[in-house]
Amino acid sequence: MQTLKDNKEKVAYLKTLLATLKSTIDTSADEVEIMKLEAASTDPDFWNDPLEAKNVMQDIASLKDSVSQMVEFEENVNLIVELEKEGQLDGSYQGEVDNLTKIAEELKKKSLLSGIYDKKNAIMSINAGQGGTEAMDWAGMLYRMYLRFAEKKGWTTETVDYSPGEEAGIKSVTFKVYGPYVFGYLKGETGTHRLVRQSPFNADNLRQTSFALVGVLPEIAESDAPSIEIKDIDLDWQFFHASSKGGQNVQKVSTAVRLKHLPTGITVTAQTERFQEQNRKIALDLLRAKLWILEEERKKNLVGDIKGEYKPASWGNQIRSYVLHPYKMVKDLRTNVESSNPTAVLDGELDEFVNEELTLSI
């Protein structure tokens, strides 16, 4: 049972953290940005581009939530501090103090997400490594893991490109994750993920090591990155029948698109929407994000400031091992965070890994 001393120590912690948060979270700047975006949303042509409009409305909602959460936190901390000064902070306030402490920890994590695009949605990709069915099954397991993690966080997902495996799992998948600070939370998942287990695909149950590559990029609107110029003359568009689920319309009409950026050779595909124009816009979003990371790679002196320890997806960048046999263990090779319950991790329990990587990358 907590004592009055426990509450006093927590109040002291809350006072210190409030001062720190006020120095790092600029609510006045957020309020100015809200007014700017709300003014833009009143333009008669605002909804001519539904995807861009959706992003703006999400930004407004996210900023308003951040401002109101910080204002409410400050008011409640000041109230608790005043009660302590007056000697009225007794055990009946234990619940309020504990709740404020939890909110403080969440705000502390958000304050670490100060990158240019940390507040943005994320574009995730998963590609199976060499190893045939084993690797494709592993890629499918990771895909499920991230979908479950997003669900637990209250985020929404949208698959934009999906290539199934011949026998099991997936060859590759690209999907968007929508929510506040999603890119900031997920960018540390970029890299190679390794699975060790007894193979379910051969009669001898041999021990098998499989790899899959995870990439995470921010969803960047054209207005977010004016320096990234995409010229029509540099684009090679191809249209084909979608191979993924999408209903009869997708199968009858060439709604899927493959877009190649001629100067860089970057190629992206989008095929899950029912209409070609929607897939074209998604493909441009994917290309813009990849051109952004390419540009940042060329600015080596700025990479740390913009993305912390975020690194482009590459097969040499192994970040985490998931061992199901001969023992059970998930270990992050950067933070040394471990879990002896890989079943829970693969079911979306990733907070411990994500939070530690977030702290490490600042």
List the helices and strands and how they pair.
Elements: H1 4-24, H2 27-41, H3 50-85, H4 94-112, E1 122-128, H5 133-153, E2 156-164, E3 170-178, H6 182-186, E4 191-198, E5 207-218, E6 235-240, H7 247-252, E7 256-261, E8 266-270, H8 276-297, H9 300-307, E9 318-323, E10 329-332, E11 338-339, H10 342-346, H11 351-360
Parallel strand pairs: 4-9
Antiparallel strand pairs: 1-3, 1-5, 2-3, 4-5, 6-7, 7-8, 9-10, 10-11
Helix pairs in contact: 1-3, 1-4, 2-3, 3-4
Structure, described:
The structure is a single chain. Helices cover 46% and strands 20% of the residues. The protein has 362 residues and is an alpha+beta fold. The chain has three domains: 4-112, Release factor (Methane Monooxygenase Hydroxylase, Chain G, domain 1, Up-down Bundle); 122-224 and 308-360, Alpha-Beta Plaits (2-Layer Sandwich); 235-297, Double Stranded RNA Binding Domain (2-Layer Sandwich). The strands form two sheets. An eight-stranded mixed β-sheet has the order 2-3-1-5-4-9-10-11, sandwiched between helices. The chain has a three-stranded antiparallel β-sheet with strand order 6-7-8, with helices on one face. The model is unreliable at 244-252 and 301-310 (pLDDT under 50).
